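Next comes a concrete protein, fold included:
___
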Amino acid sequence: MDSQERIFRVETFRQRLMEVMSGMGIKSSGLAQAIGVDRSTLSQLLAEENDRLPRVDTLMAIASKLQVSVDWLLGLTGESRSGAEILSQSLQLTPSSPLPSGASLRLWHKEAMGTKIRYVPANLPDFVKTEAVLGCEYGQFESVSLDQVMDTTKERYQELQQPGCDMEICLSVQEMVGFAKGEGLWCSLSLEDRCKQLEWFSQLVDQLYPKLRVYLFNESRNYASPYTIFGAKRSAVYMGHMYFVFNTSEHVQTLTGHFDGLIRAAEVQAHQLKDWIEDLLNEIKEQ
């Protein structure tokens, strides 16, 4: 460290230490006692004519007592929180509701209104599902009624019609084809109900385009767990009965990059989806 940088670090340390002590209402005598140093030592560190940084153990004791990071005290970062605190606040585990749109999810959507929401659903997006499809998926849930499920999906559909709504959805081709053929979860759903669902999906995306844009990617070339990106501030990865919620710009940017990759690799672009669904409907009706 050259002399000019040392002077900058010493002055930054002094100013930031005085700032946080003032904000917390801590006097130099109290801080000196709390970290186990002589009052004269701390007074010297706070003196304008001081040109030396504290010893490493003293610096760490000050940072620990005042709940700030060493890097912040030395002017190496503008973030005053400690690394552990940043990590604890950047990742949250939030239980998911048995409803398609629980309280947390509704709040995140409300907070992100007016920004772009990016969504990779586990299967068909809940807000486009018909009553028959919701009954097939949620009919065995004892904790919620079908009426409750229908109400939450209607709320989400109404939100899509609000000014400022901007949503992109990436869904796999295989999920769409599997639904159309009545595979897996949908094996008990009649062909008639599956066709009605696809027809409603086609009508809705055509009606709401371009504020709602749905892309289909190929699972054999790309993979995506269910997740939602709420603007630039939050992203939530769905893990069954739990959301892993990330609140840092770095995490949001990483998932946004992944989502953009799904769009670039999409086999069906948003403006092509209506025609693609119509072809799929013709195919399953002929079988």
